[in-house]
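Annex B, item 7. Sequence and structure tokens for protein A, then protein B.
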Amino acid sequence: MSTSRTVDRAFETALYDTADDALDTAASLLAADSAADAELAARGAEFVAAAWRRGWQPADLVRVVRRELGPEHVRSVAALIRAQAPHDRPRGPRWAAQLDALPDGAAPPRTDRFSHAGAVLELYRLLLRLPALEPLVAGEKAGGGREGRPESRALARIRALLAKAEATGYPQEAEALSAKAQELMARHSVDEALLSAHAPSPDAPGACRIGVDPPYEQAKAVLLDAVADANHCRAVWNEPLGFSTVVGFEADLEAVELLYTSLLVQAEAAMTKAEAAQRAGGRGRTKTFRQSFLAAYAHRAGTRLRAAAEAATADSGSAADVDLLPVLASREVAVTERLERMFPETTTTRLRGVSDAAGWTEGTRAADHARVGRHRPLA
């Protein structure tokens, strides 16, 4: 029997049947054919290319494999993505950044062919069943971002400020650094809006996906929604697949990614500290405390983010002696229209598990420490 036929039989046995004995039977077939590895890799590249056609991106594949399977499968899918990359068309800087951020695809020494074949089949079974996702860029030009555009000085400065806010052990310093970062984000957004409004071909809104990882996904999704709203974007959470799709203009999408990641790091550090104090006092309801903490943090941080963004936007309009309202309103309409085209049907959900008063109080206090109101620049 040819190697290709062996792989076909293994796939017929394992990929369309979820029973464990089917997987074992198929793994035995592949383990018995020492020439099957190259054919398996070629089939894997086909699965990855099919995922791209269904709207998936490199970070999406790694995320779903990490959620559903194990480290060996993550290494395998990363290796498949790298092998497929030279055969893909250019897809923009956001896609390239995802390729650069892939985990190490080098597999450790294998113990036996049967176990390796079983892991490969588990991965392919998952890839085969992936649903179609909404294209992130109009015209199905997946990847987002603008070709060849380097990071602006403003974004580089914002990134540096947030890195310092995450690293410092002093809440007031983190507060001032985060505040300055949000102020710069708002001003950068206004600058981009004005440039686009006077360009021969104004920008159109795009979209990106941001992972919302367990535990406490609901509260984290609320925090991401608050950050998106404060930065002229809209977010739609996909709970089963563990991400939110954020729709907005490119400069605002970059700001949302940076600020959400930073605030989540700061929130989790503050939550760990507050939880330790609660345990020292004899309380042990960790899960409800953390859920309530993060929900309160998201609520409070969102309020302060919006206030800071509105103040910075108003000041930018005054300084430039222009009426920003028509420009920003037209961009908001464009974002809403793009969101409705991508997601014609959405539902709302109630935040569950927010029942710990101490967690809510501590989360609100932590958000106050990370507040984003206007401050004088640090000396």
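Protein B:
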Amino acid sequence: MAKKRPQTTARRPQLSDAEIPVVGAREPCPCGSGRRYKACHGRAAAQAAAELVHRPFEGLAGECDWVALRELVPAATVELPLKDGLPEGVPSVTLATVLPMAWPALRRDDGSVLLGLQNDTASGDISRDLADTLLRALEARPGTPVQGRRAPADGPRLQDLLDPEGTFEPVVHEGFEFWVPDAEHATPEVTASLERANDAAIPTVKLTGVDSAYWCETPDKNHLRWVMPHAEERLLDALARLHAAGRSSLGEGTRLVGSFRAHGLTVPVWDLPSGVGADEIEKPAAEFAERLAAALASDAPLTPDERRARGGLTNRQVTLS
């Protein structure tokens, strides 16, 4: 009887973790293990997607303004300098709060790139998702939008792509006309999206005398929303000291009403009378910044009145992200 030859299996080429592409959760893993992606290399991707990065814009120039444009400002743009310079054929890269039809990004006919900030993201790291969208936009065909997708878990973040020495100077717009350089030739879909966005936009102005403070107008009253870089506990202590001393307002008829917590930073909010415009709040805001700096420098224990004031501020705090 002839001997049975041992069966052999052809060796599959070995891929490193970095070379394994992202596929559907129920598809075979590209590594060749025979298991589904979700049970193999997709585990790391799923874990990375589930882990929330609490300060996704930390380390970027203008972190406080990144948070404001993500959560508070309807219409604004910022020119983004890339670490390695602009690729050939890309005259500019511009961050925009919102793009028509909620596109994640758009490569314009002239090759310039618009990157949308206020989009839903697929993972817990907004910075990584935006970086993935930006890289795909830089390579997209001119005149086409970039669709959303799940970014690779080991992909670069904005901190890897943007020039760390660059500035971040938002330009706040009254509406979204920056979407269409040539409004007469915009598609009906873009025109309709523009009209809807303009109708919903809340008038907003960035103060010039202090950093990352935004005045906005609503039907009943106006507000000042001020994104601050200080550690949350220390900032709340400082605000409580001022509030207990009757020094937390921005003038007659104004009131510190609470704060938001957004992307790891704290955003105190003041109610303003409807007649108080952005120009009128510039000087009071600058004076408050001086009072706050002194309160932040204090290490004295909070008094009973200050502790009560702090409890009230904490109870009125809302988490946006």
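Comment on protein B: The longest helix spans residues 278-296.
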